[in-house]
Amino acid sequence: MNTKVTIAGVEFQNPIMEASGTFGSGMEYSEFVDLNKLGAVVTKGVANVPWLGNPTPRIAEVKSGMLNAIGLQNPGVEVFCERDLKFLEQYKDAKVVVNVCGHSAEEYIEVVDRLADEKRVDMLEINISCPNVKEGGIAFGQDPKAVEEITRLVKAHAKQPIVMKLSPNVTDIKVMAKAAEAGGADAISLINTLTGMKIDVERQSFVLANKTGGMSGPAVHPIAVRMVYECASTVSIPIIGMGGISTWEDAIEMMLAGATAVSIGTANFYNPTATLDILNGMKEYMERKGIEDINDIIGIVK
Amino acid sequence: MNTKVTIAGVEFQNPIMEASGTFGSGMEYSEFVDLNKLGAVVTKGVANVPWLGNPTPRIAEVKSGMLNAIGLQNPGVEVFCERDLKFLEQYKDAKVVVNVCGHSAEEYIEVVDRLADEKRVDMLEINISCPNVKEGGIAFGQDPKAVEEITRLVKAHAKQPIVMKLSPNVTDIKVMAKAAEAGGADAISLINTLTGMKIDVERQSFVLANKTGGMSGPAVHPIAVRMVYECASTVSIPIIGMGGISTWEDAIEMMLAGATAVSIGTANFYNPTATLDILNGMKEYMERKGIEDINDIIGIVK
Amino acid sequence: MKVKERATVVAQKKLAEGVFSLELETNATKYAVPGQFINIFSNDKSKLLPRPISICEINELNNTLRVVFRVVGEGTTEFSELQAGDTVEILGPLGNGFPLEGEKAIVVGGGIGVPPMLELAKQLKGSVTAVMGYRNDDLFLADEFIDAAADVIIATDDGSVGVHGTVVDAMKENELTADVIYACGPKPMLRGVAQYALEKGIKCYVSMEERMACGVGACLGCVCQAKEVDDHSHVKNKRVCKDGPVFLSTEVEL
Amino acid sequence: MKVKERATVVAQKKLAEGVFSLELETNATKYAVPGQFINIFSNDKSKLLPRPISICEINELNNTLRVVFRVVGEGTTEFSELQAGDTVEILGPLGNGFPLEGEKAIVVGGGIGVPPMLELAKQLKGSVTAVMGYRNDDLFLADEFIDAAADVIIATDDGSVGVHGTVVDAMKENELTADVIYACGPKPMLRGVAQYALEKGIKCYVSMEERMACGVGACLGCVCQAKEVDDHSHVKNKRVCKDGPVFLSTEVEL
Ligand SMILES: Cc1cc2nc3c(=O)[nH]c(=O)nc-3n(C[C@H](O)[C@H](O)[C@H](O)COP(=O)(O)OP(=O)(O)OC[C@H]3O[C@@H](n4cnc5c(N)ncnc54)[C@H](O)[C@@H]3O)c2cc1C
Ligand SMILES: Cc1cc2nc3c(=O)[nH]c(=O)nc-3n(C[C@H](O)[C@H](O)[C@H](O)COP(=O)(O)OP(=O)(O)OC[C@H]3O[C@@H](n4cnc5c(N)ncnc54)[C@H](O)[C@@H]3O)c2cc1C
Ligand SMILES: Cc1cc2nc3c(=O)[nH]c(=O)nc-3n(C[C@H](O)[C@H](O)[C@H](O)COP(=O)(O)O)c2cc1C
Ligand SMILES: Cc1cc2nc3c(=O)[nH]c(=O)nc-3n(C[C@H](O)[C@H](O)[C@H](O)COP(=O)(O)O)c2cc1C
Ligand code: FES
Ligand code: FES
């Protein structure tokens, strides 16, 4: 039974990654899962310098999901390389995908340049879709011209393959996927969070200090599946699918829709072993269905 | 305690409506709720001629929500006037909002013209956002120019105030709200359903015959609240808020975000008395909080 | 009259592998007729839509309805774990039910289509032949038809009991005739039974299935294709939940 | 070591209006220290995020943890309805806990901040003065401090018992001194206690609260403001779930 998948020449031992920002750099969850068994560890977004993030509350619960407005707090790329990448040295079987954020093209490029010669970095995921950064972030991800341009710029600097992470807060995800492909992206990943809001009716005020937050969790899954499906029939670069995956069924669904690999985010918060539980479920499914190669189910529902 | 709200000169005894397409024309739910107690009955979308709708399955369950791909099946405006409007004659206290659909501007106008002299029709809700109609529907609702134009055309013909119903499947809902306002809309209503997809992993096929369906229910509520909030700070016409309202808290939340009235859709399916339960809960909230006039809470969270 | 209420579980019993019998105390009992169904709601709040399940028996004395269901997904798994004393939300009775007709009736059930035939067989005034199709020798409910039907004929896919084949094979083999046939089961079976009825010139009622949301006729989610333009919809669609689930085999596309 | 498991409810008791004591049998007990908390998950599958609740007592003999909580929303309502024999998912123990220090300690609890002080008072080696603030005479848990603390001082908002005022008023009135103060309660109280400690030159630990998602330090959802750049975050933020919930009052913005 083969579970290996390949994206832009990088071979993953299985299609299971965790979603950026939900797993730190793996340190905290290494108490629950053997990181070496994952297809890849996808790190929390990292910027050129440390970012403070948003004020609290940063978290709100919604039905079958959550809102977050972390605001991309991160210690900056220097500390990241010295501490987080070093920590990940010990997990050679899992690939490392570094999620990159920035307020401007220059800031993205600074991070990409700094990471260029880091051997532990197998792939870069460029987050052009975080809804919680006013200065840049989502604006990039909502304008196809900006998507194409930032992709081209980052690609020109990157030594590792680049995955452009798309925002679902758009009229037509296909246009954004095409723009990323046109800009030279090696792959795309989707979906980032959907912008939502929660108001406390007793206090008559926003639950989140930032007013709005990014919605994730099972509630967004059907939208994510639809968008992955739409992109799969539009671009020829591989897709990393995510959004509300919490069971092996959700993961298989995403692959049937066209994803070559999948990321697990919010599910980690209520099931710290979600990633490996899902991997096991997928393997049982393959066995039961007589699927020899996981690649045989990618995008077969049309 | 005043629960009356006014939209475009039409006074509703309370802000509770049910959402188009989830309540028929009220006939079926009149076994459970006294329609006369509702702010308004909003009818299922009606076209110039009968529409067959999509093949089945038309319904899929998703976490905290559902997908539907009814495809706007309806008996046409003639039967609607003779049967449904006649049925609604007996409920004088509730206003009647007729939801109008069409494949083209001409079709919308034909319906609007036919309804012009129907005394029982208090308001028209123009559905430019149904994701299940390939020929028109969503295309209108996703292009601000089209929104403005269709609004202008319909407004020129309509004898009743018009509410433009917006699609949430857009990059920036504020742009659409502004377009509707510019076109002369008396009010806007949002959100219609978010396009989603579900795949059956055992059968490896789409659950819905139409592949995609519109997502509704509690899962979409935070997105709806955010969009209502964004529109409320953008346009000065009133907003009818909907999307996942299933408790009085959800309804109050929507009004705090800026909605003058609210519609209850999917919740009717699992609680046939949802509309009146929510109304009662709102009244208790007002009493408890010493809110004399429901209008005093509209859009106060900023 | 439809009732939405928290019904109390009076008894739960496993009838066969994956097939359960659930007895619910509910005021919906008062209004129920054979062929109707109830919507059962999950206690898991992330699952909003009801599971439609046919009424298998109506016990007015105890104010209970009995349903028999097969575990196919998360909802039915949850229902199978209910125990006496637990409560579950239901809405019902829904749909039209079977009209009680004829001097001589055949009731045909296939697999999980067998249960609704039991109350029907009991209530039919004339003589009843029950024809039941199963996969194998797990003949759940079959024994309970003995009192309700004059004849009980079994067909099994694997030939372990009765006729080796489908219910239609069994009907043919027994050259069954009657004034009316009532059938519930998978679509291919209904098609076969309808064809048999047509050939023999017997009136035939079939009970249809479709994914539902409202269950009361409002959402138009559950339509089946009608042969003619329907009075309510004004298109060739009929609502399974409201206009059905029972239709004349000649009214609908099978 | 953190444990994620289905814990079994051993006992549930109402202590005061809206305040409940829940005893859970769990292997997390083995690793727990005072001041840590556990994440309790709702059985309602539409609610995904855990409710962090402080550990009130650790009973290694019975392998049980006791938590005491106030009903404020749907999650805590659900927990209050749990009965012996029921199960509930938990993750824990989480956070750092109180360091056990000093010859003479003051433990200060306000309202629902009282419970974590109980196990702490028990485990502290030196002499302990317990200062507890309540709204009114519903003095839940106060009696249980009698064995654990040398002195028990009560303050109530309405003056019905003990000092009329806050815990800080009570501390001032009793001119309390010690080597170390441990405090848990609403932020204004923590601010007051920290100020008192500063003035008296006493080391002071405070237990902080913030909305959480992961509970294990991965998501950065639960940060509080730090006075200095933090070693882990490299910004002026500390994670309440991992670096806390217990901080030196001088480390964090109150
Ligand atoms: C009128 C009617 C009467 C029925 N009577 C019986 C009966 O007596 N005994 C019995 O075992 N089954 C009966 N069914 C089928 C039963 O409704 C489904 O097996 C059940 O809904 C599956 O729920 P689940 O959560 O276990 O499966 P899932 O597949 O997890 O359900 C997911 C969703 O699909 C819907 N769904 C799945 N299968 C069906 C289906 N076949 N028909 C309609 N909706 C479906 C569910 O209601 C739910 O909304 C009947 C269906 C209809 C329409
Ligand atoms: C470290 C820590 C220890 C705590 N210890 C206790 C304790 O011992 N006893 C006790 O009664 N309470 C304690 N709390 C507060 C407790 O977590 C909340 O009261 C509880 O989460 C409310 O859940 P709910 O579903 O009833 O309320 P809801 O308001 O419906 O909850 C909605 C969401 O907000 C979160 N939330 C709401 N209030 C709080 C809060 N004050 N802190 C953190 N998250 C919150 C919930 O976890 C949930 O995700 C503690 C909080 C923290 C952070
Ligand atoms: C707390 C939190 C933090 C996140 N941080 C990042 C981030 O730093 N960079 C990024 O690209 N996406 C980030 N995301 C988005 C996730 O990677 C993922 O795209 C999204 O949550 C949908 O997947 P899920 O539903 O499985 O969580 C974050 C999500 C959450 C919930
Ligand atoms: C079964 C179904 C049918 C619908 N039909 C219509 C329709 O005919 N016209 C329309 O404008 N919206 C239609 N809608 C959208 C609803 O009116 C509403 O905008 C949406 O469902 C969100 O609200 P809810 O989450 O409360 O259901 C339909 C929704 C559902 C679930
Ligand atoms: S389920 Fe809504 S019309 Fe039948
Ligand atoms: S709750 Fe995730 S870091 Fe604290």
Automatic annotation (TrEMBL), chains A, B:
Q: Where is this protein primarily located? A: cytoplasm
Localisation? Cytoplasm
Q: Which reaction does it catalyse?
A: (S)-dihydroorotate + A = orotate + AH2; (S)-dihydroorotate + NAD(+) = orotate + NADH + H(+)
The entry's cellular-component GO terms read: cytoplasm
Q: Which PROSITE patterns match?
A: DHODEHASE_2
Q: What is its EC number?
A: 1.3.-.-
* Active site location: 130
InterPro entries the UniProt entry points to: Aldolase_TIM (IPR013785), DHO_dehydrogenase (IPR050074), DHOD_1B (IPR033888), Dihydroorotate_DH_1 (IPR024920), Dihydroorotate_DH_1_2 (IPR012135), Dihydroorotate_DH_cat (IPR005720), Dihydroorotate_DH_CS (IPR001295), Dihydroorotate_DH_I (IPR049622)
> Required co-factor?
FMN
Instruction: Give the cofactor note.
Output: Binds 1 FMN per subunit.
Q: Indicate which residues the UniProt annotation says bind FMN.
A: 20, 44-45, 99, 127, 165, 191, 217, 243-244, 265-266
Cite the entry's keywords alphabetically: Cytoplasm, Flavoprotein, FMN, NAD, Oxidoreductase, Pyrimidine biosynthesis
Q: Does the keyword Nucleotide-binding apply?
A: no
Dihydroorotate dehydrogenase catalytic domain boundaries: 4-286
The lineage's top-level taxon is Bacteria
Pfam hit, one: DHO_dh
- According to its UniProt record, in which pathway does this protein act? Pyrimidine metabolism; UMP biosynthesis via de novo pathway; orotate from (S)-dihydroorotate (NAD(+) route): step 1/1
User: Which Gene3D superfamilies does the record associate with it?
Assistant: Aldolase class I
Q: Which biological process annotations from GO are given for this protein?
A: 'de novo' pyrimidine nucleobase biosynthetic process; 'de novo' UMP biosynthetic process
Q: Which CDD domains match?
A: DHOD_1B_like (cd04740)
UniProt lists the family membership as follows: Belongs to the dihydroorotate dehydrogenase family. Type 1 subfamily.
Biological function: Catalyzes the conversion of dihydroorotate to orotate with NAD(+) as electron acceptor.
Q: Which NCBIfam families does this entry report, sorted A to Z?
A: PRK07259.1, pyrD_sub1_fam
Q: What is this protein called?
A: Dihydroorotate dehydrogenase
Provide the taxonomic classification: Bacteria, Bacillati, Bacillota, Clostridia, Lachnospirales
Automatic annotation (TrEMBL), chains C, D:
Q: Which Gene3D superfamilies match?
A: Dihydroorotate dehydrogenase, electron transfer subunit, Nucleotide-binding domain of ferredoxin-NADP reductase (FNR) module, Translation factors
Swiss-Prot/TrEMBL cofactor(s): [2Fe-2S] cluster; FAD
Query: Mind listing the GO molecular function terms for this protein?
Result: 2 iron, 2 sulfur cluster binding; electron transfer activity; flavin adenine dinucleotide binding; metal ion binding; oxidoreductase activity
Q: Which residues form the FAD-binding FR-type domain?
A: 2-100
Give the domain of life.
Answer: Bacteria
Q: Which InterPro entries match?
A: Cbr1-like_FAD-bd_dom (IPR008333), Cyt_c3_hydrogenase_gsu (IPR012165), Dihydroorotate_DH_ele_sf (IPR037117), Dihydroorotate_DH_Fe-S-bd (IPR019480), Dihydroorotate_DHASE_ETsu (IPR023455), FAD-bd_FR_type (IPR017927), FNR_nucleotide-bd (IPR039261), PyrK_electron_transfer (IPR050353)
**Which PROSITE patterns does the protein's record reference?**
FAD_FR
Q: Which residues bind [2Fe-2S] cluster?
A: 214, 219, 222, 241
Q: What does this protein do?
A: Responsible for channeling the electrons from the oxidation of dihydroorotate from the FMN redox center in the PyrD type B subunit to the ultimate electron acceptor NAD(+).
Assembly, in brief, is: Heterotetramer of 2 PyrK and 2 PyrD type B subunits.
Tell me the protein's name.
Answer: Dihydroorotate dehydrogenase B (NAD(+)), electron transfer subunit
| UniProt source species | Pseudobutyrivibrio ruminis DSM 9787
